[in-house]
Amino acid sequence: MTKGVFTRISGFFSGIPVLGWLLGAFIAVLLERFLGYPISELLGLPKIPVLFGVVVMLKKPHLIPGAFAYVLLIYVLPIAVFARIGSKAMNWVAGRLEVIPLWLSALIHLGLLYFSLDLWCDVSDYRLLLVKLTLIAIMLTLSLNVINGYMGEFSCSHPGFMALGAYVASIFTVGLFVDDRIFGPALLPTFLGKFLFPVGLLLGGVMAAIGALVVAIPSFRTRGDYLAIISLAFMFIVKSLIENLEVIGGPRGLGGQPDYASLPMVFLWAVLCVWTINNFVESIMGKALNAVRDEESAAEAMTVNTRKTKMVAFMFGAFWAGVAGGLFAHVLRYVNPGTFGLKKLAEILAMLYFGGLNSVVGSIVGAVGFNVLSEMLRPLEIFKWIIIPILLILVMIFRPTGLIAFKHFDVREILSPKARSEERA
Q1: Is residue 202 within 8 Å of residue 130, measured between CB atoms?
Q2: Element (H or E) spanning 254, and its range?
Q3: For the chain, give me the number of helices (H) and strands (E)?
Q4: How far, in Å, are 42, 45, 65, 71, 120 from residue 57 at the CA level?
Q5: For the residues 158-181, what does the mean pLDDT come to?
Q6: At 329, is the pLDDT very low, low, confident or very high (cuts 50, 70, 90)?
Q7: Which of 133, 146, 220, 400 is least buried, going by the fewest C-beta atoms within 10 A?
Q8: At 153, is the secondary structure helix, strand, or coil?
Q9: What is the distance between the alpha carbons of residues 57 and 203, in angstroms, rounded to a whole number?
Q10: What is the DSSP string of 87-142?
Q11: Once rounded to an integer, what is the mean pLDDT over residues 32-42?
């Protein structure tokens, strides 16, 4: 019976294109912006719920009815009603967008997504921080998926790559554009910092790629689990090296990073990361990578340079981990070597395997789902770290490859008009 209900619901909403859902979400956040406070007061809530009412319900159970009603009135009903009623109009618009270049259609959809996120974050600085960290988590998960998923190896060095990117980008911005107690007076005018910040991120990514080369040279001469051992050692080496370098703060960390990692900046880098990684795994190099993963000996027999392919993929994934690390340091405006240890490694691996291997969509779902769930369960304190591992265990039992694994990220198919289930039948 439950399966039949879900089938009817999915059939009812199956004909709605992505454009319809994005416009519905935009209308919902507009509604919250103008009516959120009056509705929350009417329902007896002390303020607008920051995370869809879950935090409010866990902190004060007597507010559960009000939180449910708020989410229903502000999010569920407006999005569902608009998306369903306007499905024909949105399909017509989506059909017209197919005529224009694909990149322009994608920009229109991304614009709607960004403005929805921007309006949603205006309610609270906490929301803004959560969205920024989630976008960075998407970049980290995708970059690790290139190695652990598409390449088929098991790397534990991502926190080390992230640390290299974070410290190099921080040294670049703090040393050049900030009067700092460690690096002294600024060397360049402050107003240039926002324009040159991407250069610092790229330098952090390049340094992480160089670090990956150090790991790859000895690792890819061997087979089996040696990469996991060497990469784990590399993570501890980087962490220990930073802790013993007093010139960059040592174990106290490095602070004072300028506020350059705004929401538009982080959003643009996340979109660029998704685009480049998706193009990489769909390219000839990506196909060669899959061949190496499935059967390295057969790939060599088919003239694939397996060692070069693995090294390029490893350095490519490390580069984006370094960029993500640079953004992470400037979002928090402080970086500490203790951040890049086993806990960070466990988080990235959990996001990757929760979402699914060999899937760009799976990495996005895993990063967003894990981060939002982790924040929603924060009021439970220690019980949060009992619930989340149990959920991960259940996913591994019932979906061993993750929620969305081995799925291509076809932009044209995603943005195209949709037919309802009965029309397809």
Answers
A1: no
A2: strand 254-255
A3: 20, 2
A4: 17, 10, 9, 12, 20
A5: 92
A6: very high
A7: 400
A8: coil
A9: 44
A10: HHHHHHHHHHHTTS-HHHHHHHHHHHHHHHHHHHHTT-HHHHHHHHHHHHHHHHHH
A11: 91
CB 132 within 8 A of CB 209: no
Maximal CA-CA distance, the chain: 70
Can you tell me which residue has the tokens 């009021």?
379
Cβ atoms 344, 159 nearer than 8 A: yes
* Chain position carrying tokens 């607008």: 48
Kindly report, residue by residue over 250-261, the tens digit of the pLDDT: 888 898 899 999
Q: Is the pLDDT of residue 96 over 70?
A: yes
d(CA 304, CA 309): 8
Query: How far is Cα 174 from Cα 170, in angstroms, rounded to an integer?
Result: 6
Tell me the per-residue pLDDT of 197-249, one tens digit each, with 9 for 90 and over. 999 999 999 999 999 998 888 877 766 677 888 889 999 999 999 999 888 88
* Polymer length of the chain: 425
If you average pLDDT over residues 64-82, what whole number do you get? 90
Which tokens hold the place of 202? 């790229």
- pLDDT reading at 1 higher than 60: no
283, amino acid identity: S
pLDDT of 303 > 80? The answer is no
Distance CA 329, CA 130 (A): 14
Please give the mean pLDDT across all residues of the chain: 87
Separation of alpha carbons 150 and 171, rounded Å: 33
Radius of gyration of the chain (CA): 23
What is the distance between the terminal CA atoms of the chain, rounded to a whole angstrom?
A: 22
- Amino acid (one-letter) located at 86: G
Confidence of residue 39 (pLDDT cuts 50, 70, 90): very high
Considering only CA atoms, which of 227, 91, 208 is closest in space to residue 161?
208
pLDDT value at position 422?
Answer: 46
What pLDDT band is residue 421 in, cutting at 50, 70 and 90? very low
Identify whether the C-beta of residue 325 lies closer than 8 Å to the C-beta of residue 161.
yes
Short-list 133, 158, 130, 160, CA closest to 143: 158
Residue 301 gets the label, from left (phi > 0), alpha (psi -120 to 50) or beta, of: alpha
Residues β-bridged to residue 255: 334
Distance (Å, whole) CA 33 – CA 214: 50
Q: Which residue has the tokens 């309610």?
A: 123
Two structure tokens written together for 232: 């784990």
Mean pLDDT calculated for residue range 317-328: 96
